[in-house]
Structure formats: C-alpha cells, structure tokens
Amino acid sequence: MAVSKVNYNYLGKSGVQVSNLCLGALTFGESSNGFPTQASEQLSFEIMDKYAELGGNFIDTSNTYGFGNSERIVGNWLTRQDRRSILIATKVGRPMGTDFNRRGLSRRNMTESLDESLERLQTPFVDLLQTHLWDNATPIEETLRTLDDLSRCGKIRYFGVCNVCGWQLQKIVDKIEMMGLNRCVSLQQQYNLLCRQPEWEELMVCENEGIGVLPWSPLKGGILTGKFGRGVKPDANGSRIGYIHTDESKATQAKPAWSDFKDDDNYWKLIDSMRIIGGKYGKSIPQVALRWLLQKPVVSSVIIGATSVKQLEENMGASSGWSLADEEMASLDELAPRPLNYPYEFIWRNPKDRVNKFNRPCL
Length: 363
Prior knowledge:
Blueprint: E1 8-10, E2 17-19, E3 21-24, H1 41-53, E4 58-60, H2 69-78, E5 87-92, H3 107-121, E6 126-131, H4 140-152, E7 156-162, H5 166-179, E8 184-190, H6 202-209, E9 212-216, H7 240-245, H8 265-281, H9 285-294, E10 302-304, H10 309-316, H11 326-335, H12 344-348
Parallel strand pairs: 3-4, 3-10, 4-5, 5-6, 6-7, 7-8, 8-9
Antiparallel strand pairs: 1-2
C-alpha cells in the first residue's frame, strides 16, 4: 500500500515548517481520570512511528497530560529519533500539584515547569512552549519577558499561547511590540465545525498579526466522527463521549455532553452533508471535518489525537492529495453557523462593497 504524505505550512510568521497535521499526545499513557481508549507506551510508540513514517514532524503535549506521563512517553520515543527532524510543543500554566506556586504563568513556575518538562522529554530544548491559559494573577509583562528570556537562552525555540479571548491575544501582541520581545508565533484554540466562535475575534487577530492557528479538538471530542447514531446511546467503554454520557456533570469543551447534540436537527443535517461530501471523494466524515479546517488560510497545523494506528492513518488521509470545492466549504459553513450575537450582527450588516485591498476588511 502506498504511503501518503502530509503537506507542510509555516508556523505562523516564523521560518520553521510543520506538517499540517500535528499529533496530539493527550491520549498517551494511563490517566487517573478513568477515561477509556488511553494508549499504552507501546501503542503510543507505534502511533508516533507511523506518524513520522507518513511525514508528520510536529507533536503536541503538555506537562499536565497524564500528570507528566505523556511527556515521559514522548521523551522515551524521542531518544530513538533524529531530534532535528521532530518539532516538540508542550505547555505550561495549569496546576501540577497542590502547591499554589506550581501553577500559573509566573517566572518561578514557568522556569521550573519547563526544566521538569525538558527532563521528562529528554531534550535540551522544546521547539514551541505554549501558555496553557491566561493567568489573572501574573502581570502579562512578567510572563512575556520570561518567555523571551527562555527563547534567548535556547531552552525554547518559539512560543505561543492557548485558550485566550480576543482582547487578551491583542494585548499580548501589543505588549510584545512595545517591549521589543520575540514574537508570539501561534495560537492553540478550540476550533471546529461545531465551535466557530474564534472566527469573530481571536482568528481575526491571528490573520492581522501573522499568528498561526493550531486548532485543538477538530472533531469536537468525537462528536464529528459520525460514529454515533440518532437515538443510539454511545458505548461507555468505547469513547470519551460515551464515558461522559454516564455522568454529564464531567462534561467539558474537550469532552462535550452527548445530550447537547443528540436531538439537534441541525447537527444531524451537518453529519449527513459531511457523509455525502466524503462519499464524493472516498473520504470519511472525520476526514471532511479535518479538511474543512486545513483549508482555512489562518491554520498552520491541525492537532489530531489517535488511540490506534488505524485511526491515525485515517486522520492523516485528510492532509494532502484532495480538497473540498469552494461550494462545499460554503455549504459546511452554512450548516455550521456562527452565533451572531451583538456586536457581530451589527458589524456583519456593514456594507460589503466598502473594501480596500490595501486594508484588510473587518469581516
């Protein structure tokens, strides 16, 4: 069987290129939260081996994934590879224990957390360090100066941010320019056909400022896989959606509640349309969902998870060799509408003929 290859994009306004599908390592290693379908170290190695074989060069993890276990597994695998051929991204900021100083984006926690991550990853540097969330307790100047210092001393090559709103991202950009620091190259944000709110603010900042977007949960925690049937209760042991369905008080953005979608006619129309579009190209519903993201100009790389080699190979089939037609992209956009709240509805009604190609239009 022929081995498919991925395409590569620049990581925002940087000179480094990453595969347009990034392998997320959230599912690597046993987890204390009891989630099903976590991958053992051996299976994680097999998934990473296949990912690299298919041309992937970008792996995303975090110190909090499995409380360091994901980083350890990636690090053990990384010792067998040519370090120069793999780009490693990790994160800092979320709690790593009960000590109140082992969380947040203070200089103290960031420097100590990175040293611990480097030890687990068995590498002298990470290619991309990302702040996992906004920290209301730490001045943004302290966080940005620390990231710049870590970059200057060679412990990180680039830095990005995750899970911020529009004003926070613009403030980060403006502070960096004012302080004369190394730029932020990426934003990791939830973005998918069922979560398009980032298009109103954060993605517009990214487009204006040359920041590459790394969508996480591109399949909305499994909701966009098409494997769930109308009126059928998800298997509690076969998926995160099924597991959460047994106790929806545990639902989060990354693990959405099935009850939010199972009776939504618009959701089922979207799934049916994706099935029809996929059939035209011999592609699956997940591949269509990934392809929709890959064709958004602001996206550098889409973060995919995998709990089996087969699942990885299917997802990697979205990377190259085919594309959705303009009318198909528009159809999916229409079936997955953005919530049009104020002031966006007001802005949207602005005259569309007021466009200057030398000045980016507002929408």
